[in-house]
Amino acid sequence: MSVPYLSVQDLSVSFPTRSDHFRAIDGISFDLARGEILALVGESGSGKSMTSLSIMKLLPAAARMSGRIQVDGQDIAALDRRQMEDVRGAKIGMIFQEPMTSLNPVLTIARQMTEGMVRHNGLSRREALATACTWLEDVGISEPTRVLAQYPHQLSGGMRQRIMIAAALALRPGILIADEPTTALDVTVQSQVLDLLVDLKARSGSGILLITHDIGVVAETADRVAVMRGGRILEVGTVDQVLRAPQHEYTQALLASHLTVEKGLKQRQAELEGARP
Amino acid sequence: MSITTEISIWRRRPPFSVVLGLGLASVIVAASLLSYYLAPFDPTRMAAGPRLAPPSGAHLFGTDEFGRDLFSRVLVGGRLSLGIGISAVVSGLVIGGLIGLLAAFSARIVQVTLLRLIDVLYSFPDTLIALALVAFLGPGIENATLAIAISLVPFYARVTYGLAAAERAKPYIEAARLAGIGNGRLVRVHVMPNIGQSLIVMGTLGFSSAILSAAGLSFLGLGVQPPSPEWGAILASGRNYINKAPWILIFPGVAICLTVLSFNLIGDSLRDLVDPRRKGRS
C-alpha cells in the first residue's frame, strides 16, 4: 500500500501557561487516504480544531508543536511560508463552521471563488469562472451565473456553505478538512450538505477529515472514526466497529448521550408512567 | 439594492445637519476653486482701496492695513487652506494607514514596536508635533503641509490598526488564508475594501483638524508666509488692528469656523452611516 495522503504521527501541541504547559493535543497519530472520510469526534476542547490548525500550520504563535505531519509525502515542518501557501487550499482545503461569516462581505462570490483557482491551479480568470460555474452546479445551486454575481449577504446560510464547499473543492485538494460543517445550519439543510459532501468525495476523490461533535453526523457519513478527548485519541476504527461495539467507556458515554427521537419518546413515556398516581 | 438598505436611516429625508454640512462645504470648495475668477481684486495688490476700510459695496469684507481687498484675500486664502488640508490628510492617511496595516499583519515584535512608537507620538497634541517639525524644517507652505501630515500619522495609524486587527480576526480572512492567499493579497483584496469606508470617514473628520492646524501654524508665522493670503496668516496680520478694524479678523475667522463645521458635520453623518451600531439612532 502506498503512503497515505495525510499522515499525522505523534502530534503534540502545547501552550505555555504561567507555571506549566497546557497540552492541547497529546501525542495523536492517524492517517487519511484520498477518497476516505475520517471523522474526528469529541467534545469541545478535546483538540479537534487544534489538530486541523496544526495540519494547516496556522497555529497561534504561542503554540509549541512536536511530531510529524506529512502531506502528499512532504513533511510540512520543512516548508517555508511561501511553500505552505501552496499547500493550503491546493493540497488541503478547509471549510468551517460559520458559513455566515466565512465569505468576505464586500466581494462577489465570483471574485472569491476564482481567487484561489487563479493562484493555485494556474487558470485564467475566464477559465476559473467557468470552473466555478460547474462546481456551483455540482453543489446543487440552480442558477450559478446569477449567484456568482451576488454578494454573500444576498444568500442563505445553506447556500453559503455550499459555496464554501464548491470553492474549496474547485481547487482539487487531496484532502478537505471540514470543521463542523453543519453545526450552524438548519437540521433540514444539514443532511443535504452531508449528502453533498459524501457524493462529491466519491466524484472528486478527495479525502475528508470531518471534525464534529455530532455522533449522528459521523454515523451518516464517515468511513472511519477517531474519538478524541483531552487531546488524545481514545479509540480509532471503522464506523461500524466503533459505534456498534465501542471499546472505550468514554465512547459509550458519548453514544449514550446522543439524543434520538426514539430515546426521547421512551423517556417521555417513562416519565408519564412514573407520574401516574 | 444593497445601497437602499444601507441608507435606510435616511429614507424619509436626510437630516438637517447633513444638508447644512454638504451645502456649506460645496459653497466653500466651489468658491475656493474659482477664487481667482471670483476675486474682484488681486489678493496681494496693495492700495486696492483705502487702508482699513470697513465692509462696503466696493470691498465686501473691507480692506486690511495695506488697503488690500479682504474679500479677495479670504477667497484665495481658502484655496491655500483647503489645499494644505487635503494634501496633509491624504498623505497622513496613506502613511498612517500603511503603518497600521503593517502593524496588523506582521510578526508580533514588529507590531509591538510600531504600536508603541505610535503611542508615544499619539500622546503629544497634533499641533505640538506640527509645531516642532516646522521649527525643525523651517517655515513655508510645503514644510507646514508635511508637518501637519506627519502630525496626523499617529492617529490614522492607530485607527487603521484597530480596524485591520478587527478584520483580521474574522473568519473570512482565515478562510482566505486557508485557501493559500498570502498576506499582501489578503490586505489588498480582502481587508482594504472592508475598512476603506471607515478610513474615508476618518479622513473627512481629520480634514477639519488639518485646516485648523494649518491656520494655527500660519498664525504663528510658521506656515504660509506673507504676503500670500491664508486664513491663519490674515488673522495674524490683522490682530494688531482688532480695535480699529475687527473685520480683518472676523471674516477669515468665520471662514475657518464654517469650513471646520461643515466638514465635521459631513464626517459625523458619514460615520453614522457607516457604523452599524449607530444605525437606528439619530
Question: Layout of SSEs?
Answer:
The complex is a heterodimer of chains A (277) and B (282).
Chain A: E1 6-16, E2 21-32, E3 37-41, H1 48-56, E4 64-71, E5 74-75, H2 81-87, E6 92-95, H3 109-120, H4 125-138, H5 144-148, H6 157-170, E7 175-179, H7 187-204, E8 207-212, H8 215-221, E9 224-229, E10 232-238, H9 239-244, H10 249-256, H11 261-275
Parallel strand pairs in A: 3-8, 3-9, 6-7, 7-8
Antiparallel strand pairs in A: 1-2, 1-4, 4-5, 9-10
Chain B: H1 2-6, H2 16-33, H3 35-38, H4 70-104, H5 108-122, H6 126-137, H7 141-168, H8 171-178, H9 183-219, H10 231-238, H11 247-274
Helix pairs in contact in B: 2-4, 2-11, 4-5, 4-7, 4-9, 4-11, 5-7, 6-7, 7-9, 9-10, 9-11, 10-11
* Backbone structural class of chain B: mainly alpha
The chain-level mean pLDDT of chain A equals: 86
Separation of termini of chain B?
23 Å
Computed over alpha carbons, the radius of gyration of chain A is 20 Å
The global form of chain A is globular
Unreliable runs of chain B: 1-7
User: How many E-type strands of chain B?
Assistant: 0
What is the straight-line distance between the termini of chain A? 66 Å
CATH topology description of chain B: MetI-like fold
Instruction: Write the element-wise H/E pattern of chain A from the N-terminal end onward.
Output: EEEHEEHEHHHHEHEHEEHHH
CATH class of chain A: Alpha Beta
Q: How does the major sheet of chain B shape up?
A: none
Instruction: Count every beta strand of chain A, where a strand is a DSSP E run of 2 or more residues.
Output: 10
State the assembly state of the protein chains.
Answer: heterodimer
CATH architectural type of chain A: 3-Layer(aba) Sandwich
Low-pLDDT segments of chain A: none
CATH class of chain B: Mainly Alpha
Q: What is the correct CATH architecture of chain B?
A: Orthogonal Bundle
Total helical elements of chain B: 11
Q: Compute the number of helices of chain A.
A: 11
> What strand line-up does the widest sheet of chain A have?
6-7-8-3-9-10
